[in-house]
Design a protein that fits this description.
The chain has 260 residues and is an alpha/beta fold. The chain has twelve helices and ten strands.
Length: 260
């Protein structure tokens, strides 16, 4: 379904060139759960944003291939990319309050992909949105539908983001640090919700995190990144229990273990 080959991302300043991602390869089939882990600045989020098609085409130099079901996302026409975004590939972020329009009610926000990608009328969109909110295990969805983002808790907002991302049932869900701003109890609930989505809908999930123990809870395979490079990859259980690279060993030792 997804094959990334030799992905490089460079930013050109006036006199210098910074390479943010270098020669990254990854592969995902339908229903896979893959983690990308690394410290801030490791290139993991840049890799995710490039797959989602959310990096500027003008400010950055990108090379290699990001092939999604036979389409190279790096050079595809913008109209084709827009059709894939939100429809086949969706993304959720670390802090929903920064991603959700504070001037719009939750119902309007959740329905956005339906307005773009379907011809459903207003009542049909509302019905689908309420179902999507129920599917992420929110209560009193009619009230939430009429609420503004600031009126919800952090955990509720993250569930709303997942509902919005999943409303058209994309094949790939990219989750960029979706639990970092939440307490450990809510983190566990969000991880279980992602597992449920994967299990029931066979949605592939690319999970970005700085916490290798959290990735080990959710993912089957993991890629460890440092300074834009993949330093280690393989089964989560193998890497977590028997890391080969010194950086991976330090990463495991430095980060508090997840309680899940």
């Amino acid at each position: 379904m997804l094959k990334v080959t030799d992905l490089c991302i460079k930013v050109h300043e006036k006199t210098t060139t910074d390479t943010l991602v270098k020669d990254v390869d990854l592969y995902m089939d339908r229903g896979d759960i893959l983690g990308i882990v690394g410290e801030s600045g490791s290139g993991k989020t840049m890799t995710a944003l490039s797959i989602a098609g959310l990096l500027s085409r003008h400010d950055m130099e990108k090379s290699g291939e990001i092939e999604f079901e036979g389409i190279n996302l790096l050079n595809v026409e913008r109209r084709v990319l827009r059709k894939l975004q939100g429809n086949e590939i969706s993304m959720i972020f670390q802090e929903p309050l920064n991603s959700l329009n504070p001037l719009r009610k939750i119902g309007w926000l959740v329905e956005e992909s339906l307005r773009i990608h379907t011809t459903l009328d207003k009542e049909e969109r509302k019905e689908r949105a309420l179902k999507a909110l129920r599917d992420v295990e929110l209560d009193n969805v009619e009230a939430i539908y009429e609420s503004y983002p600031h009126e919800l808790s952090g955990g509720m907002r993250q569930r709303v983001m997942i509902a919005a991302a999943m409303i058209i049932e994309p094949k790939l869900l990219i989750a960029d640090e979706p639990t970092t701003a939440l307490d450990v109890t809510i983190q566990a609930e969000i991880v279980e919700l992602l597992k449920k989505i994967n299990r029931e809908r066979n949605t592939a999930i690319l999970f970005i995190s700085h916490d290798l123990s959290l990735v080990n809870t959710l993912c089957e395979n993991v890629i460890v990144m440092q300074n834009g490079l993949v330093v280690e990859s393989g089964k989560c259980s193998d890497i977590f229990n028997n890391p080969q690279e010194e950086y991976t060993k330090k990463l495991i030792a430095a980060i508090p273990k997840s309680p899940f």
